[in-house]
Description:
The protein is mainly α. Helix content is 85%, strand content 0%. It has one domain (16-33, 49-136). It has helices at residues 9-42, 49-74, 78-100, 104-143.
Amino acid sequence: MINMLFLTADEIVILTAFILVLVLAIVMFIIGIFVTRWKARKNEWSDSLLTAFVVNLIWLLTNIPVSMLVEFLFGANFLFGIVELVIAIIIGAIVVKIIYKKDFGESFVFVIVIQILLFLIGIAIGIVLGIIISFILVALLLTV
């Protein structure tokens, strides 16, 4: 276990941010599978769990390094969250075009709807998780 007494305030903030990003990415991955299947079903495309899993796995594996790079270079703020969203939409449209075998326009609209929904859900979940993780770390600091 990490001894919280030997961590500086900056290290605690970094640890909190890392935990938040990791947990949020996993939660959004799972939610993304269901949202992708819902949108595919609505479009009368294949709503296969495996297909939705693969699409969201590719988003997850590309989103984590892109998010870390953008946040490292520019800091975490809403404007660069939009930049990450645009990158995810472009990558997603290409992935969906290939996996679902649709034209780029259809794929692009499909991905825009999903990514905007996930973006809004992610903001809400991120706020809640941030509060929970902060309380947990404060409790750990107070018990040491």
